[in-house]
Amino acid sequence: MTNRRGFHIRSAAGISALLTATTLLSGCGSDTPSRNPDAAPSKTSAPNVSQDVALDATLLESALPRQRNVPSNFSSERNIKAWDGSKSDFCLSDRWAESWCAKAISIGVAGFTDMEDEELEIYVISLPGADTAERLFTSKGTEAEVGSNPPGDQIDRFEISSSPSTGLDGEGVTVRQGGVIARIEYTRSPGTQTSDQELMAITTMVVKRIQQAQRGENPTASVE
Predict the structure, then answer these.
(1) Which among 111, 26, 128 has a CA at the least distance from the CA of 75?
(2) pLDDT value of position 165
(3) Which of 38, 53, 143, 181 has the most CB within a 10 Å radius?
(4) Which residue from 198, 118, 133, 215 is spatially nearest to 163, judged by alpha carbons?
(5) 31-46, pLDDT tens digit by residue?
(6) Count of alpha carbons within 13 Å of 151, Cβ hemisphere only?
(7) CB atoms within 10 A of CB 30
(8) Number of helices and strands (H, E) in the chain?
(9) Measuring CA to CA, how many Å separate 134 from each of 43, 83, 131, 216?
(10) Extended strands (E) in 18-105
(11) What is the CA radius of gyration of the chain?
């Protein structure tokens, strides 16, 4: 029927039927909650860093730091290079374990010197994936050795007495980030102390550069 102004008026039965149909169409009363059109859009989670990316020689070499990325006292680069993992002789000569070299995708090394009595060498090996690298990385540094929140997925620290490559003494860190393992050796003249803070700053920088390469980014991290 219509009122006196000409507007159509539904009967009570008609209104009830309309409300029932609207309820069924909107999903109210079911297990599916209704959506508020004024509600803020839901946030999507950020993509995870892929740690299972196997870095080939080209990507691994990009992850190696350059002279501008390391502490300024290392004024000269000695060697920055990466090779395919099939170069097993190179892998073994870099003192990686035979079982690691057998699975290596690529290997790399970066060396720096102050031209007097300090040397920094960074050896890196990329393995088929994080699971493989985790199984091979069996040692673990204590909190007293590597701090309460150290970089990387696994980390260990060791002393160097007369380094095979430099003949100097010092300290070293082995760290795993996903499927990549790095060994950092900081050596000085016998009787001098390696700075714990500087060694861990270098380790953090190496881990960040590996992460950037694993994300498909250009590695840019430097020692802060």
Answers:
(1) 111
(2) 77
(3) 181
(4) 118
(5) 444 444 444 444 333 3
(6) 21
(7) 10
(8) 7, 6
(9) 33, 22, 5, 22
(10) 76-84
(11) 30
Q: Are 127 and 104 in contact (CB under 8 A)?
A: yes
pLDDT of 151 > 80? The answer is yes
| Pair of tokens at residue 136 | 């091979």
Token pair belonging to 188: 């000085």
With bands split at pLDDT 50, 70 and 90, how would you rate the model's confidence at 163? confident
One-letter amino acid for residue 194 of the chain: T
Contact at 8 Å (CB) between 158 and 174?
A: yes
CB 146 within 8 A of CB 173: yes
Position 167 scores a pLDDT of: 82
Residue 93 has pLDDT above 50, yes or no: yes
Kindly state the average pLDDT of the residues 167-174. 92
Which pLDDT tens digit goes with each residue over 7-27? 343 443 443 443 344 443 344
- Tokens representing 69 are 């990325």
DSSP letter string, 8-31: B---HHHHHHHHHHHHHHHTTTSS
